[in-house]
Amino acid sequence: MRPNNNIVFTNVAANANRNSLAQWATDIIRTSFQIVVTTGTATGTMKVQASNEKAFGLPANQFQPTDWSDLGAMVVLNGIGSYLIPSLECSYEYLRLVYTDSSGGTATGLISCRMASKAL
């Protein structure tokens, strides 16, 4: 088993909706996400989405799917702090995080996120 620890977001502004880049997940068995809000405020939700699109014409780790489905795993962000999306079983081609700002554009925080996983 191979552990991975990937950066998903680094200091992105919390005042607008954001989608992370696709995280190639074909070999991942389990994964979790830790979201950290620093400076200012962040109010919104962070959810996990998955895609089973196949990469055509590009290496799988460079492909960006267009069809995404919610997995039901999410966390509500409400200010500075550390938030965790607990371990998920993974059987998808790709994963991504989606941040939805609920501040109406007034949030001043910065959001970072890491994805820890166990892979084959």
Report on this structure:
By secondary structure, this protein is mainly β. The chain contains no helices and nine strands. The strands form two sheets. Strands 2, 3, 5, 6 and 8 form a five-stranded antiparallel β-sheet that branches. It has a four-stranded antiparallel β-sheet with strand order 1-9-4-7, with no helix packed on it. 28% of the residues are buried.
Major pleated sheet = 5 strands, antiparallel
What is the number of helices?
0
Mean pLDDT: 94
Total beta-strand segments: 9
Name the descriptors:
4-stranded antiparallel β-sheet; 61% strand; 120 residues; mainly beta; 5-stranded antiparallel β-sheet; single chain; Jelly Rolls
Summarize the topology.
Layout: E1 2-13, E2 18-19, E3 23-24, E4 28-38, E5 43-51, E6 69-78, E7 81-89, E8 94-101, E9 110-119
Antiparallel strand pairs: 1-9, 2-8, 3-8, 4-7, 4-9, 5-6, 5-8
